[in-house]
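Page 37, continued from 36.
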C-alpha cells in the first residue's frame, strides 16, 4: 500500500509487537500436513490490516517486492492458461 496509495497508510498505527495467537497449533500446521486445516478470517488475526512488524516498511521496499511478484504471477497464469488450452485440445 505504501507504494500505491501512501495516503491510506497511517504510519502512527504501525504494529511493532508480537501477536498472541489464539490457536495453540497454528505454528505446527505450517510444518505438518494432515486432513484438517483450520482457517480464520484475516480480520481475526490483524486489527491493523498488516501481518508482521511494520516499523521497517517503506514504499521502496514495497515496490521492490511487488514488481517481481507481478512478473512471477503473470508467468504462473500464462502457464495455467497454456495447460488448460493443451488439455482442451
Amino acid at each position: 500500500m505504501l507504494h500505491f496509495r501512501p495516503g491510506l497508510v497511517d504510519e502512527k498505527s504501525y504494529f511493532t509487537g508480537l501477536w498472541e495467537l489464539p490457536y495453540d497449533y497454528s505454528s505446527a500446521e505450517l510444518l505438518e500436513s494432515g486432513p484438517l486445516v483450520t482457517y480464520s478470517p484475516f480480520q481475526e488475526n490483524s486489527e491493523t490490516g498488516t501481518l508482521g512488524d511494520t516499523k521497517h516498511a517503506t514504499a521502496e521496499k514495497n515496490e521492490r517486492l511487488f514488481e517481481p511478484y507481478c512478473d512471477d504471477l503473470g508467468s504462473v497464469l500464462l502457464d495455467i492458461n497454456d495447460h488448460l488450452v493443451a488439455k482442451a485440445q
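The longest helix spans residues 59-88. Flag for discussion at group meeting. The chain has one domain: 6-88.
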